[in-house]
Automatic annotation (TrEMBL):
Pfam families: Ank_2. Keywords: ANK repeat, Repeat. This is Ankyrin repeat protein. It comes from Opisthorchis viverrini (Southeast Asian liver fluke). The keyword Repeat applies. SUPFAM superfamilies: Ankyrin repeat. InterPro entries: Ankyrin_rpt, Ankyrin_rpt-contain_sf. The keyword Repeat applies. ANK repeats lie at residues 34-66.
Amino acid sequence: VWFVLYENAVASCEIQPILFLRQHGAPLDCKGEFGETLLHVAVKTGCLEILRYLITAGLDVTGTDHDWKTPLLWAIENQQHACAAELMNWGARTDTCDR
């Protein structure tokens, strides 16, 4: 449930709903049906502001989905170059691959 609520906010690049959910105890480290994190969603939509917020809030830039894809791989696949650069600035590994 938490992931879907966060996913909608992240996908629309809206910070206020994310802050509201956090104020009411919703954990940021929830995952989607396929193991994707909110960082994966942020890079897919290219929302750099939300990506930075999630990283500074403590989400793991090296976390993987069920296919072992990191947010960096999602950023590259979706041609979100600014998000890819941001993830690398925060320590995303470039030596990983998916299944």
